[in-house]
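user: Here is a favour to ask of a fellow structure person. I have my own habits and do not want them to colour yours. Could you put it straight underneath, so I can go through it closely?

assistant:
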Amino acid sequence: MLQQARVAWDKAVKDPRDGRGRRHGHLGLLGLVVVAFAVGKKGLKQVAQLAQDVGARTRKRLGLPQAVVGSTLWRLLEKQPAAGLRETMMAQVQQVLKDPRTPRLAFPMGVLSLDGKSLWTTHQGEVKGLESVANNEAGRELWSQGALRAVLTSVVAAPCLDMEFVSAKQGESPALRQLFPRVVQAYGEHFGVATGDAGLTAAPNAALVRQWGKHYCFGLKANQPTLHEYAVRVIAAKQCPARARTQERAHGKTVVRELWTPALEPGEVDFPGARMLLLVRQQHWGDDGTCEEEYRYFVTSLDTTLFTFKQLLRLVRVHWGIENRHHWTLDVVLGEDEHQPCRPTRTALEVVAWLRAIAFNLLSFFRARLPLEGRHLVQWDRACELLRDSLVHGRRLETLLTAA
């Protein structure tokens, strides 16, 4: 744990503090924040308390010979520039991905999922560096900062690979055109298909993905009315049985998912590289016979020479993993959407977002290698407890991991 807490910070991560009066090592403080976020601490006071819990010997190994107070961390994060934090996270992920023991899902190629996520939204006052937008519901100005995230969902840990920040007046599609080339250059060997919700479905985005030699699977909704209506009409006209079907129990209901996949002829639709349209019908059956039904449509450049029908159905579910494995954890476990530990400015929001992403990767990689509880990974709160115990009590990580 101590080795992982000592993050290999990029040389571009600079200390913004004055030269005089530095009690604590700069990178030690940043490492403390990352570890505290990883064990579920959300505020700087809790981070400082964790530094007291670990004891003097452990603080020294982290480069923190004295106890830390929350105001010290506040002043640091308020001034800390974001330069070098992206490179730090990339190095963290690349090191783990090189390990053949890193658990992966059984797919013909890796899967990169792209989705936007809110970092901070407020009506309370101006956020330095952000532009406000009118909020029709509240009648007040709204300051908002989000990020388009790239997550490797074909890896069990679903690590965050990179982010492109998006303010209230910007869209996700322009962010994709900045983000995707970077991700391919850094991690191209680890994935072959990119997935995204309907908000990213656009011909320029599909062309970009194919230009970089990757496949796509994008959601279809009313933002692409022509293609969406065509998919509804063509799939309904086929009247063929489902190509793949799964059934499972979840939250007290029986969940049935079925897939229909009519192939497309070259040039049949005006969308770069499109080979198939997908329909996933999801039914939630209650024990009393009631049924909730949902239909979702997709367009993809994949075909059945690359993915089987069963794998295509699983691909759609794997994309949803960016929500329930990544976004949910950041919000519920790490408190990203509700808790900003320092004064909100655009730079501070970005810095904390990078530190939380590094912390999520640390926690998630750790959790993915813990012994299973039955057929499932341990609960997130339990993983946080084990991670904290390994730091505070000096337990060796090897005693918590599987023999593999």
Remarks:
- The mean pLDDT is 86.
